[in-house]
Amino acid sequence: MTYQDRNNVVSIIVGLITTAYVIFRLVEMNAAGQFDGADAVNVWAKMVIWIIPIAIGGTIIGTILFNIGYAIVTRTEKPSFLVDERDKLFDRRGIVAVVLFSGAGFLLAIIALAFDWSALKAFNIIYFSMALGSMSADLVKFISYRRGY
Predict the structure, then answer these.
(1) pTM for this predicted structure
(2) Coil, strand, or helix at residue 115?
(3) Is the pLDDT of residue 14 over 80?
(4) What CA–CA distances, in Å, run from 17 to 3, 11, 58, 117, 129?
(5) How many CA atoms lie within 13 A of 91 on its CB side?
(6) N- to C-terminal Cα distance for the chain?
(7) Is the predicted pLDDT of residue 80 greater than 80, yes or no?
(8) What is the number of other CB atoms lying within 10 angstroms of the CB of residue 35?
């Protein structure tokens, strides 16, 4: 497993854990009636504002720990951090996936608002489309590295 593969796997795992936590938390908060008032969007934003840096930190810490553990278990040398044209191509493929999902989610949220859905639902659409875009970018890069092209 290459260094890039390991990083993508950790990002996918952290993304899945974070998304599962957000879904669990949204269901829990909705059941408690925290989204019933006029400040529902504020309550949602206060929850999400902490999720994003925690997910970023979790990805960084997870990547470091996974790479250290992998090096200890497999007794491999220090990985190469050189970036070639293939790496740039795979990153561009990932960026395309993020843009497609995020853009589609934004458009879907605008359409939802036009059909009188609540702003809270629109924000959830945007959040989950971006999360899905991020995970799909990591998956596209992982598959690209596995295929080699």
Answers:
(1) 0.88
(2) coil
(3) yes
(4) 21, 10, 10, 28, 16
(5) 8
(6) 16
(7) no
(8) 16
Whether residue 41 contacts residue 123, with contact meaning beta carbons closer than 8 Å, is answered with yes
Query: Phi, psi at residue 138, to the nearest 5°?
Result: -65, -40
- Per the model's pLDDT, the better-predicted residue between 84 and 42 turns out to be 42
Q: Is the dihedral angle over the CA atoms 111, 117, 122, 128 positive or is it negative?
A: negative
Phi, psi of 78 (to 5 degrees): -60, 130
Structure tokens, 22: 């957000």
Question: What's the domain count of the chain?
Answer: 1
pLDDT category of residue 63 using cuts at 50, 70 and 90: very high
Task: Report d(CA 33, CA 22) in Å as an integer.
Answer: 16
Sequence-separated contacts (24+) of 46-50 with Cβ below 8 Å: 47/22, 48/22, 48/123, 48/127
Domain that holds residue 15: 3-147
96 has a pLDDT exceeding 90: yes
Q: Mean pLDDT throughout 30-38? A: 93
